[in-house]
Amino acid sequence: MAYVKVPAHGCQQHDYPGGGVATCQHISSSCCPSFSGGEGSFAEWRCSQCCVSRPHCSTADSPPPVSPSQAAASTIDGRKNRAGFFGEGEGKCLMESRLMGSSSENREHACAREAFPRAGNSQVLGEIQSSAADELSKASHLLKESAAALDNWPDRQQELEAVRSQLRPLRHHSTFHKQETKRMRTEPLLIAPAASAAATKRPREVSPSMPAVQRLWESNSNIADNESSDIPIDDEYEDEELQTVSDESSDPGNQNEPPLRNSLFSYVPPYVRFQMPIDGAQGEEIGLPAEVKRLLKWKLSPITPLVVRRTLLRSNFRLVKTTNDWAGTWGKHMKSALFTSIKDYQKMNHFPGTFQIGRKDRLWRNLHKLMQKFGKKEFGFMPKTYVLPQDLRLLRQAWEKTCGIEKWIVKPPASARGTGIRVVHKWSQIPKKRPLVVQRYIAQPYLINGSKFDLRLYVFVSSVDPLRIYLYDDGLVRFASVKYSNDMSSLHDRYMHLTNYSINKNSSHYTQNEDADACQGHKWTVKSLWTYLAQQGVNVNELWSRLEDLVVKTIISGESSIAPLIREHVSSRYCCYELFGVDVLLDEHLNPWLLEVNISPSLHSSSPLDQAVKGPMVCNLLNMAGYHIPNKLPSSMQKDFLRNLAPDVKTNQLCIDNRLYYIGLSRDEAAKQLFFTKEAYQREDYLGQILQNLSADDVRHLVQAEDELTQAGGFIRVFPTPYTHRYHQFFEGPRYYNMLFDAWETRYNSNRSPGISLLEDLCKQKYHLNIPALSARAKSSAETESATETALESKALQVPAPSEEPQHAESVLIQSIEESQVLSNPMTTKSARALAQQALMKAKKHHFPCWRRTYCFSALSSRCFKATRAKLQKTMTKSNSA
Ligand code: ADP
Q1: Range with the poorest average pLDDT among 86-100, 391-405, 473-487, 852-866
Q2: Which of 116, 196, 703, 768 sits a CA distance of 20 to 30 A from 498?
Q3: Measuring from atom 23 of ligand 1, which residue has the nearest CA?
Q4: 47 — phi, psi (to 5°)?
Q5: Cα→Cα distances 280→257, 530, 616, 676, Å
Q6: How far is CA 507 from CA 366, 480, 482, in A?
């Protein structure tokens, strides 16, 4: 047999001169050739993959595979052994036989024999063999360890990196927390300014592996978030640092009214009553039992305003810094995806996606889109804006048209307090590459006593679909501290051209105004301004209507982006509301110009004037938002407490009933909505019909809106009213709930009692608590639809076991819905799809244990099959109890 060298790429079997087949770890079969040649002959027998020369190999039939790292280690350790004990070829041979898993003594001995064929002395050979075996076993152990370490290296690196990235924010968080705790101990209610300053220092990463609340926390202080947390914190926060409120953390204050407020309707649990922190007020103190109070936890964020904290303490809430179990929170805007972590009994002061109007660039884009569609007359109330760098060319063209005589104001797209703002008139003064907005400067503002001013209006949105907007009847008027001049040479004077409090408070000319009713100093209330303007012969009512119009259109401009994010990320109608601060400038003709919308408006309230405006406003707002007690008490206890706390209440339930805020639709409800949005969206069509046969879902919405309206106080509802149907055209498409409310307001606005009685009659029958799975109508329709019963049933029973992946559950769910769609009519398909969406959202929100339940629930409610329902309900009960 010819003596064949291993080819360069070869690692296959090759014939040896003495017979047999040589191999290395890259091939499976091997045997030892009868060795007779010198080392030099074998140096060429190499495997191109492991580069190990191979004089012989083990007799093992099929050595276990060895990883490349082990092979590398073998080379390293092989060298070590060669230097220490063996000759080059021999050491390697023995090492390799170990590496290849041929660890049996026989094989080692055989190799040793082969390594020292000419020793001739069996005893010496035996010693050498046993010593070699010892060394080998040590080496082998070492090798295994290092090989394993090498193998795991990339994983370990990743793990280490992951741990590091988790630790980083936690480390910052813990430092922040320590500082905060220390500060809170010494200044119990001083939070906003220092904390907001601290917030800017806090880390920007929000690790998905963090607990939800921590993520909320992180996100709330995250100012670099590309969508939401670019939203600026408004003026004046820093000043709250100076303010202490003694003993408030332990004293709930004198309460003149019962701590709970009843709904207008039966079977709606009571709401927490928020009370104004009026110093020195006397009255009967009726607190809540400790068991209930324990549940009213408010999670503080670094920007929770003092006025909110004081109101909360007066209203039985406990302020806590770290808890997952909060009932309410007031913080900075956060990323949309994090809204999924809000539980059904929790409420926060933002909707997802409101950065669409809270950022200056997005606000312009949204309004501009509507202006292009509906004209300047409707939507031309924001000064013409260019978003740089995208609109640089357009800006250049506009600039040239005005021959450089116009003034422009340059602003960062997402900042506040006048930061980075300049008034310019030269092209060279405009930074061309940074993201900026460049806006036409309103050079002829309305002046009072020679000074420019702007208005801060407060707008409360309690719901986006249906849209409900309230405008507060008071606000702030903020004056520039230096008298206005239109001269180009004064453009650099920020005290003249900007009206921000944060800027002007530093001016030597700035004077405070402590009196909410006085037209003096550099801050007035909006009510004082109306008085002043009325004295000047201005038609204040008309001006107010124009402001209402501006507010409604501004919110509508963001609706089409915000509503889908709410549908996607918020699982209960209970969870969100939002307060906006809308800044408006009046020009010389008293035309209102929208400057910006703040989604974290300052609620700073150190001066009596601020307190007079913001104190009642916050109290109204929290009452309108309608906070319930989290449902964590046994029903017997709830009944007992109710008897003492709210004897007149028309329900047995003290805590929140999630059915009231349920977002799913029954088949009939979905069909009704489809009919009105597709067939009868003309006003003359829906006005007459939509209030006939109110669905349970309709009733729930109307009940909530009526309860909300009773708490409005100074808030005026500007949408919906009997006259706001003209705004419907500005929505992307017909909105069922807006039509419903239009019809409702048209019929009952002037006299609400018949409407309230109608709803109450339905509520007495618990009609509003019918949610799809339990609806009687669903039951009856189930009887008629048995054709696909078996198919659906078998699908439903395929609900993944808890150990399976959520993704799998999702795919099963989608598949089942798709299958059921094939078998159903289009109407049912629509509702099935809607329900499937909700089921998915819920399932995602509640994580795996709820998959089973939501899946069953979705199948049950979307298809309504009788027999399936019975079985599914059993499964639900089981999984619930589990
Ligand atoms: P910030 O969010 O930083 O407060 P604003 O857009 O509110 O930014 O602008 C700050 C101030 O600049 C306003 O209060 C107003 O006095 C002035 N200002 C802003 N835009 C204009 C404009 N287009 N014309 C005239 N003055 C303006």
Answers
A1: 86-100
A2: 196
A3: 441
A4: -95, 130
A5: 15, 31, 17, 54
A6: 36, 9, 8
Cα(774)–Cα(779) distance, integer angstroms: 8
Give 760-774 as a DSSP string: HHHHHTTGGG--GGG
Q: Measure 281 CA to ligand 1 centroid, in angstroms.
A: 40
Q: Is the pLDDT of residue 20 over 70?
A: no
Counting ligand 1 atoms within 8 A of each CB, the residue from 492, 497, 498 with the most, and so the one to mutate, is 498
The tokens for 673 are: 């909505």
Residue with tokens 């933002």, as numbered in its chain: 350
Ligand 1 center from residue 461 Cα (angstroms): 24
**What's the 732 CA to ligand 1 centre distance in angstroms?**
30
Q: Which residue has the tokens 């509503």?
A: 563
pLDDT at position 146: 53
257-316 pLDDT, tens per residue? 889 999 999 999 999 999 987 665 544 445 889 999 999 999 999 889 999 999 999 999
Integer angstrom CA distances of residue 539 from 382, 442, 518: 22, 22, 20
What share of residues in the chain are helix, strand, coil (percent, to 5)?
Answer: 50, 10, 40
The answer, as to whether pTM is greater than 0.70, is no
Amino acid letter for position 591: N
Protein residues whose CB sits closer than 6 Å to any atom of ligand 1: 383, 409, 411, 415-419, 421, 439, 441-442, 454, 498-500, 583, 585, 595-596
CA-wise closest residue to 300 among 353, 221, 354, 197: 221
Provide the pLDDT confidence category of residue 99 given band limits of 50, 70 and 90.
Answer: very low
Amino acid at 245: V
| pLDDT 10s digits, 77-88 | 333 333 333 333
CA 437–ligand 1 middle distance (angstroms): 11
329 C-alpha vs ligand 1 centroid, how far in Å? Answer: 30
| Probe target for ligand 1 pocket from 507, 585, 594, with the most ligand atoms within 8 Å of CB | 585
Radius of gyration of the chain (CA): 37
Q: Distance between CA 820 and CA 813 in Å, rounded?
A: 11
Contact 191/604 with Cβ under 8 angstroms? Answer: no
Cβ burial, residue 488 (10 Å; 0-12/13-18/19+): exposed
Distance CA 127, CA 372 (A): 96
Residue 197: C-alpha distances to residues 139, 201, 391, 554, 882 (Å): 59, 7, 33, 30, 46
Distances, alpha carbon 270 to alpha carbons 468, 515, 635, in Å? 22, 37, 15
Return the ligand 1 atom nearest residue 232 CA.
2
The CA distance from 170 to 350, in Å, is 25
Q: What would the two tokens of residue 259 be?
A: 């701590």
- Which residue among 410, 476, 500 is best mutated to probe the pocket of ligand 1, counting the most ligand atoms within 8 A of its Cβ? 500
pLDDT in tens, 749-802: 999 999 999 999 999 999 999 988 644 444 444 443 433 333 333 333 333 333
**Dist. CA 623–CA 312, nearest whole Å:** 11
Looking at residue 125, its pLDDT comes to 54
Least confident of 12-26, 389-403, 574-588: 12-26
H or E element: which one contains 472?
A: strand 468-479
> Do 232 and 356 contact (CB within 8 A), yes or no?
no
For ligand 1, the distance from its centroid to the CA atom of residue 594, given in whole angstroms, is 9
